[in-house]
Amino acid sequence: MRGEQAHCGCLADRAHRGGVVDTRALGATSNLRDNVAMSFDRTLDESALFRICFVCTGNICRSPMAEVLFRDIVKNAGYEGAVTVMSAGTGDWHVGENSDSRTIAALDAHGYDGSRHRAKQFDPEWFENLDLIVVFDRSQERILRAWASTEQDRGKVQMLLSFDHEQAAQIDVPDPYYSDAAMFDGVLGMIQHACAALFRQIEPGIRRGVS
What we know:
Elements: H1 2-14, H2 23-26, E1 50-56, H3 62-76, E2 83-89, H4 101-109, E3 132-135, H5 138-147, H6 151-155, E4 157-159, H7 181-210
Parallel strand pairs: 1-2, 1-3, 3-4
Helix pairs in contact: 1-7, 3-7, 4-7
């Protein structure tokens, strides 16, 4: 955990350079397009202090949950214009599709709207424009770190549960795709708890950046 906290501190500081966004680290957004010439359902705000992408396998179960939940945390904290949140998948099987119906139902049962999501595949060109890329299991971690062309970009890829000391020992967030609605609800709870822990670690840097 000590290493992960240090990493988060570095990420938070990257969003804050004496109260000014370090745009060299963030880069431009002109290359951020999805794989089927469709626009992102959530575009990266060029003025955002911090840019995060949640990545699972198909972008229809775990990562859409995290995107919705984390965006709600950001909004409730008053940082909606300072943090950009998006999600994607390592594979292209579901590009353009809605989230899994069980994902939408689990979110809806807890008061969240996941109906607007459209699946995207992660593009390695996005690395330079993102501050943090959060994955859910070790297979996604291996894939994305293999796609990264620099050590700096590989360091941006982090496991979600590593930010949550209460769940870190589990390492992976299980894929609920081949399970039932109860599993989706359980996974949603895991992600919700870990997203709150993640936000607590990056929030100090964001707060300094907007002050």
